[in-house]
């Protein structure tokens, strides 16, 4: 599949990493078009549809503003931050695209935002922009931490009340990960680790979590299994392994949470409770807290997608309203 022009032409100009994350999450809130804790009887779909033109106008106005240029990192020091949700690298130097044995030099993409909003049970109730981006397979980044959480809990590697101190910086499988979420100065529970997208918590599971248990959960969620050649640490945070289209990530989150028409991922009630707590926390006090700040009730997860043409794109996947979701949204 050819790489869409939006992802392969022109140098990348984007907000500073923290601003980018907030911008994409705010775009997600606008795309959903939901206010407050919209109950099961609210007409969320029609409201979302009426706000699509406003969404595009707001996004493009924001993108025309003068943004700070990204801070480039050397190929030997790759930093991953759940708050900024970014990977920094120079478009003019060698970069690792997380495929085994592959290094390439590729141009960075221009700024652009794609979104896909759809009802979970009615395929005709949908809105989208930049479909070519939505259909371009990418590494799903930290969205996959929700899958990793379920696999680890079901395997008994961690429990609902487990705690782990974030070390802030950790190197796993030759890749350096940095955590930029708030330092709670106490162990994080699994739900808090998901809400804050703690890199250390999830990549550290590679020491104990069997690959076959990860693949069992991935396949049930609609993701391809990890090959033996995929580095498990980065794969547990979505930065190695098979690529997936952003559009498909709504289905992944729907199967994990057990909403929508697809078969849910098998898990114990306690595992599901931790997952829901983490996704709710992400949308209230974690990496997707801009949703809660805008009055949007949702289950959400943020991530970073290293793009085929170079550069990175922020990802947000959300199901809303929380509790009884009727719509899903992905913003790139």
Task: Describe the protein.
By secondary structure, this protein is α+β, with helices and mostly antiparallel strands. 33% of the residues lie in helices and 14% in strands. It has helices at residues 17-32, 44-50, 52-63, 131-134, 145-155, 190-196, 199-203, 211-221, 232-236, 249-257, 269-284, 289-293, and strands spanning 80-81, 86-87, 95-96, 103-104, 115-119, 126-129, 169-172, 175-178, 299-306, 312-320, 327-331. Strands 6-5-11-10-9 form a five-stranded antiparallel sheet, with helices on both faces. Strands 1-2 form a two-stranded antiparallel sheet. It has a two-stranded antiparallel ribbon with strand order 3-4. Strand 3 (95-96) and strand 4 form a beta hairpin. Helix 5 (145-155) packs across helix 8, helix 5 (145-155) runs antiparallel to helix 11 (269-284) and helix 6 (190-196) runs parallel beside helix 11. It is globular, with a radius of gyration of 18 Å. The two termini are 19 Å apart.
